[in-house]
């Protein structure tokens, strides 16, 4: 949930959607995202829409937050009233730090979603969690409430790297929390890593990967550090206190991740995501990447229903105020043009191991695919089967391949 929202046309006060959008809600799956915009402190690299207690000001509080989200859920039920989704396939509670809310509040929000639309019997229900903000007890409460998956922000095993990233947890706490989650009955546990942080050595990252593998989790996400404008980290780099990340180092780290995770039995299924088994893949993210419908609850949350995309007001106080007045918290929306929808489809599906059907490409894109194949960026077997599937080298250059596949 990045901090900067795009522009668009206004959302009606009652949140209503064009009839064209609600005609086949959930045809490609239906998910619910819940944004929890609170953090104990802000990590220097992060530009997500999240607030510390000091930054929050009046008009919004962690205490009242679950009820505010439930008020948006009631509005969502009214908007989709005549065209409810068949069922909720996935729920993803992200942040911010969802686990700063009491586990009972997270349980209440999930119960509200179930009562509103009904959770599928095999629904995937994830919450993100910061390692220092869960306990064996809170994890047991979440599991009993119906959460099926925990995603922990580990970032690194190296104390020096955690310090540069301003993380609050000590080295070792993330893998400990992952074991606590497994003991609480979670079969699906993810650890997030960030690589390429200034000061991180190849050995530091190798140690992070070794710890992740030893923790027995079934999913790993690894992201190159992005230096976001306006963050403390960006300011430190501008002042020369820290070096900017290097693309060559990031590529080396990516290859190290692929090699260690592959050796440990993980397979990539999206450029930055690996799972031990198909059942371990994050179905909620797959729903985003495959163009499914989802309702995003919370300040700054984005939603997508039937080709209409909208996003909520950003500040928790403005969000609560709109809902208290019985109004949609939607700030603006847009209907994707066919060209925009095509660009998005290529960008998202090319990053998947399942690849992109060559048939969706225009002539210029097919010519680009032939060049990428000749350059070793697309897999010959996938291509022969009619799909654009990135090779390992192609994964390192995914953005360039996307550009080549677009008109
Ligand atoms: C926004 S956080 C929310 C979860 C939780 N608060 C945490 O920090 O673990 C989700 C993940 O996004 C990734 N992330 C956030 N900002 C990033 C950045 N500037 N560069 C790379 N990864 C980033 C981190 O790996 C993080 O675990
Ligand atoms: S804890 Fe997570 S969401 Fe909060 S500031 Fe740090 S990276 Fe961002």
Structure description:
By secondary structure, this protein is an alpha/beta fold. It is 38% helix and 19% strand. The chain has 16 helices and 14 strands. Strands 7-8-6-5-4-3-2-1-9 form a 9-stranded mixed beta sheet, with helices on both faces. A 3-stranded antiparallel beta sheet has the order 10-11-12, with no helix packed on it. α3 (103-117) runs parallel beside α4 (136-145). The chain starts with 29 loop residues before the first strand and ends with a helix. The relative contact order is 0.14. The model has no long low-confidence stretch (mean pLDDT 96). The protein binds S-adenosylmethionine and iron/sulfur cluster. Residues 39, 42-43, 46, 48, 50, 95-97, 130, 153 line the site of iron/sulfur cluster.
In brief:
With 407 residues, this protein is α/β, with parallel strands linked by helices. The protein is built from 16 helices and 14 strands. The strands form three sheets. A nine-stranded mixed beta sheet has the order 7-8-6-5-4-3-2-1-9, sandwiched between helices. A three-stranded antiparallel beta sheet has the order 10-11-12, with no helix packed on it.
